Every structure is written in C-alpha cells, then in structure tokens.
Automatic annotation (TrEMBL):
<feature type="signal peptide">
    <location>
        <begin position="1"/>
        <end position="25"/>
    </location>
</feature>
<dbReference type="InterPro" id="IPR008972">
    <property type="entry name" value="Cupredoxin"/>
</dbReference>
<protein>
    <submittedName>
        <fullName>Cupredoxin family copper-binding protein</fullName>
    </submittedName>
</protein>
<keyword id="KW-0813">Transport</keyword>
<feature type="domain" description="EfeO-type cupredoxin-like">
    <location>
        <begin position="19"/>
        <end position="118"/>
    </location>
</feature>
<dbReference type="InterPro" id="IPR002386">
    <property type="entry name" value="Amicyanin/Pseudoazurin"/>
</dbReference>
<dbReference type="Pfam" id="PF13473">
    <property type="entry name" value="Cupredoxin_1"/>
</dbReference>
<keyword id="KW-0249">Electron transport</keyword>
<dbReference type="InterPro" id="IPR028096">
    <property type="entry name" value="EfeO_Cupredoxin"/>
</dbReference>
<keyword id="KW-0732">Signal</keyword>
<keyword id="KW-0574">Periplasm</keyword>
<dbReference type="InterPro" id="IPR052721">
    <property type="entry name" value="ET_Amicyanin"/>
</dbReference>
<dbReference type="InterPro" id="IPR035668">
    <property type="entry name" value="Amicyanin"/>
</dbReference>
C-alpha cells in the first residue's frame, strides 16, 4: 500500500470514528432532555438542604454528600430505594414516578430528616 493510500485510509477511519462519537454524544443529550427533571438536595452540616422539596412526578432527585462524614438517604417507608453510606462527594439518585409524600432520614444520624413531595 502506498503512503498516500495509507494516509487516506487513516483519515477515513478517523472520520468514521469521530462521527460515531458525535452521534453517541447527541443520543446522550437527547435522552437527558426528554422532559424528566432533576432536583438536587445537598447533604451539608448534618442536614438535608432543602429539607423539603416539591417535585413533579417523574423527577429525579440527586443527593450529594458535601460533609466530611458519611451519611445515608434512608426511606422512612418503602416509597423508594435507600442508599448505602455516602462518602464525601458521593451522589445518590432516586426517581419519583408516583405522587405522594416521601420522608427519609440518615440511618447514621437519625435526627437528619427530609421530605420529598411529589405532585
Ligand atoms: Cu448522617
């Protein structure tokens, strides 16, 4: 194979690869903007902030532990799945598809409580 043909083959392969990467990036963007909304709750200074949030049905709630101590997001009922212990900067997500009031607490520090109201 001549050097020119090799160079052309490489350029073609690179173009195909870049197109594939771009296509997958577009797919990821489309799937994250399909109407579902994400709400963040910080875990900071041994408290959930905000302590109570109201979200639409289908929303995703993301907790982020900003403390140096581990915390959990533990459902007070069976309304949603509880987290494991979250270390500093760990995130935990839950999707709330049904309207209702969901209370939760930290199993390590049970005085830490929070409420998700799903409308
Ligand atoms: Cu805690």
């Amino acid at each position: 194979m001549s050097t020119v043909i090799k160079a052309l083959a490489f350029a073609f392969a690179l173009t195909v690869l870049l197109c594939a990467v771009e296509a997958s990036a577009m797919t990821a963007k489309a799937s994250s903007s399909n109407g579902a909304r994400t709400y963040q709750v910080a875990i900071r200074n041994f408290a959930f902030e905000p302590g109570t949030i109201t979200v639409p049905a289908g929303a995703t709630v993301v907790w982020v532990n900003q403390d140096e101590e581990p915390h959990t997001v533990t459902s007070a009922g069976s309304g949603f799945a509880s987290s494991k212990a979250l270390d500093t900067d760990d995130r935990y997500e839950a999707i709330f598809s049904r309207p209702g009031t969901y209370t939760y607490y930290c199993s390590i520090h049970p005085h830490m409580v929070g409420t998700i109201i799903v409308q």
